[in-house]
Amino acid sequence: MRESKHLSEEGIAEELPEGQIFQARHLSKVYQMGEVEVVALRDVDFTLHKGEMLVLLGASGSGKSTLLNILGGLDTPTNGHVQYRDLVLSTANENELTIYRRKHVGFVFQFYNLIPSLTARENVALVTEISDNPMTAEEALELVGLEDRLDHFPAQLSGGEQQRVAIARAVAKRPNVLLCDEPTGALDLETGKIVLRALDTVNRQLGTAVALITHNAAISALGDRVVQMSSGRITESTYNAHRASMDEIVW
Amino acid sequence: MTPLTKKMFRDLWHHRGQMISIAAVVATAIMTVLSMRGVYESLVTSRDAYYETSKFPDVWVQLERAPESLRKQIAEIPGVASVDTRVSFLATINLDQIEKPASGLFVSIDNPDAMLGRLHLRSGRFVRKWDRDKVMLSEKFAITNSFEEGDSIEVVINGQLRAMEVVGVAISPEHMYIVPPGSFFPDNEAFGIVWMGRQTLSALDNMESAFSEAVLTLQAGAVEEQVKADLDELLKPYGGRGSYGRPMQISHQYLENELKQNKTMGTAIPAVFLAVVAFLLNIVLRRLISTQRQEIAVLKAFGYSNADIGRFYFQFSLVAVLVGALVGLFVGVWLGDVMIEMYKEFFVFPNLQYKLSGSLLFFALLVSILAATVGALGGVRNAVALPPAEAMRPQAPARFHPGIFERMGLGTYLSAATRMVLRNIERRPMKSILSALGVSFSVAILIIGLFMFDGVEYMMNLQFNVAQREDISISFNRPLTPDVELDILRIPGVAVAEPFRMVPARFHSGHLKKEAGITGRSVAHELQRIITADGDIIPLPLSGIVISKFMADHLQVRRGDRVSVEILEGRRPWREVEIVEVVEDFMGVSAYMEIGQLHRLVGGARSVSGANVKVALGQQEKVSRTLSDLPAVAGVASPRSTYEIFQKQMSEGLFIGIFFLIGFSSVIAVSVIYNGARISLSERGRELASLRVLGFSKREVAVLLFAEQGIITFLAIPIGWYIGYLLSQAIALSLITESYRIPLMINFDTYVYAAGITLIAAIGSSWLVRRRLDRYDLISVLKTRD
């Protein structure tokens, strides 16, 4: 059986092949919405590589958010196997998932989800205080160009700035992977670009793998690879011959 | 049903936890109003009717002996409507079935139909003036000792043992609350009222054609003070002990005290609960309205008026309040019945029932609707003020500031999580303060309730274990020479005998006066001691007088001052005496002197009026019997048995009391903390979900959510202790009477219990919210806009 390939006796998986961070096999997810069953993922195979910038494209309801949530340990698949390095996420318990989120993965959402009662610096510190080898809150905010907004509360920051605080907060723990669900969805063009540039910087400078969900095809040029989803399946996976820089992107 | 009404019921259902907790507070408020105030009203109505139909006297006076012919002169005092005279005295009753000595207040009856303070017959018949050896007993005494008509009862009057036939059982408006002399607690087994035909009773006490007590009613508009002064003047040659009005009549005084307490508690407790209701409705509705901004905008866009929207939210809070009021109505009426039954244990009425008056019901409904209105006001104003376009936009992020600790420069020591908690508390200081105040009342209610028990227990313990250490206390029916001590010591089983003299007196200071007995004792005596409210023992001084603080306050005198003492017996001399000590005691009004000094003060022959006795182990019953049979002994009492009865009654009362107190306190604590936590969860749900995504465990997130309620609870506890202390002080002050004063003594345990019960309620309510937090769907929270 393919699922058990990476599983040892104790249920702890063998390391993934060199260069891979995530591996998902035959992944499916069915939601029970009242009396209706909604199939969000159908038999998806998926791999994410170290340091990769991946763009996930698809219409709303195509399953890309579900995939991302399962990779991030926020949700569990109905069927199939999903593994992060030596941790099998599909069978991990609540505690293992909490530790996994705490140490290895960073999230950025469309709505910034900052803590309104904490300043930019403190929002980042919230994470660095519980991580093993974090950068300082100041370093993380400098990385996203907010070194002069350290002591501002969310209510004193623009949407773009808030989203960059969210990115700084996600990367401060030096995660191996950054999962971004429509991070520019609520932003205008110019602000969106600043946010994407911050993600680009994180990926290039820290070597953090980034999985970026968007329904804006123009952004796809930014990725090393573009995965297209539709009706819960991966319909296309292509490598960009040339990964564009931020300045080349227009939409 | 309009769509808006449907929405209201669905919203109510959706917020049922919060609505139920608010309704519970309303129910408690209404319950306490209807029970306590209802009981108060029922007692007042029954009492007034009873006083009216029984011709309850306005003025009483006891004297040594006056000829019956004086009655006419009393009746001629201006302002007097009617006069009745009696013979009354204390005497011993022999009861085979109980071990301790029993005694009774023997009162004569002339004409049961024409007397003042008319008796109400419970069974059998009235005794008549000429009836020989027939008695009527007071109801509680008869029931407790199983006396029925036809039974025989042995009484010892002036040393004569007489068997009397019980012909009837009755109750008297002057004895609705019956306490043995010197006690303040009923002892239905060992003390009762015995009514006897005037002729027989007079003969037994050598009082033919004479009386020792007169009672009067006054004409409308009569000046009571003047009548009493005239009466005292008239009775001076006859050993008048000083007349007094209803406020000094023991039974009336206790009932009045109870009524006062009921009225105060029945107002204060519901007021606290209704304030909590208004506060809770306010915070709950504000939150509800802020989550329903968009719905309100849509309704307004569809053409619903501000009045419609306002009415909607007002009705929303009204439903919760009315549901609570309805529950409170039923429980309150039930509790009122229960309380009335409890009152019947202590106060005897001819016909006492709990009656809920229409006006009280109306008042209760009115105040609960008022609480609903006040509570709804703030939230409704917000909803109405919101322009539709603005309402459709999400609310701007909340503004925060660095908290007080950070402004003090302590910020670097606080983790980001701690700062979150502190800033949330500080962001809405009013809400935090009111929440803390609410919780602190839950602590305070327990303290004021338990304090009553602590104070009374403390008082009784000091009184019966420190101050009165005699096994038996006897009173003589006439003055005896001091060498009676030797006679008593000769009785087998008696270890110590300490005779004392009690002299009725009136103290004067300027125009102020106060009646009190002066107790004279030897300084070598050890059985009875003078104690202060702190439990300190005050040695009896060799000269001068020691008086109760209650009397010192009344006379406006201090230690070192001199007062005039009018002795109310013998040749009735007036003397000056120095106050050498003022003692803050808590039972009766007392004055103490060295016995030799007292003899000199009174003049005439040295005599004693009673003795305190200590007996050898196991000899109590035998010695009591021997003493009761002595001709000169009027009454034999055992302080210890009084204390035992008190403790038994107390522990029963304590159990019921604590049950309700815990209920009251928990209702407040749970409703404030539960609603606080629910609102926090609703306001900060996405914040907490973010933390979960960032790698915080469920536990850590729960700690962050409940830290705020936890801090509020911890702040509330000392505040509650303090409020409880202040309220207890106010209650203690309001209950100061001539008969007893409850010391402000709150046990350490009480503080611990109060805090503990509130903490348990807080933890319980957090647990309810924690379950909800655990079920939170991380993803859906984060993906929606606030």
Please tell me about this protein's structure:
The complex is a heterodimer of chains A (251) and B (786). Chain A has a domain at 50-75 and 93-104 and 175-248: P-loop containing nucleotide triphosphate hydrolases (Rossmann fold, 3-Layer(aba) Sandwich), CATH 3.40.50. In chain A, strands 6-7-8-3-9-10 form a six-stranded mixed sheet, with helices on both faces. Residues 1-11 of chain A have low confidence and may be disordered. With 251 residues, chain A is of the alpha/beta class. In chain A, strand 9 and strand 10 form a beta hairpin. In chain A, helix 5 (159-171) runs parallel beside helix 6. Helix content of chain A is 26%, strand content 28%. Chain A is globular and about 45 Å long. Chain A contains six helices and ten strands; from the N terminus they run βββαββαβαααβαβββ. With 786 residues, chain B is α+β, with helices and mostly antiparallel strands. Chain B has three domains: 58-253, no CATH class; 428-468 and 639-786, no CATH class; 472-637, no CATH class. Chain B is elongated, with a radius of gyration of 33 Å. In chain B, 46% of the residues are buried. The mean pLDDT of chain B is 87. The chains are: A alpha/beta (251), B alpha+beta (786). The interface between A and B is medium-sized, with 37 and 33 residues.
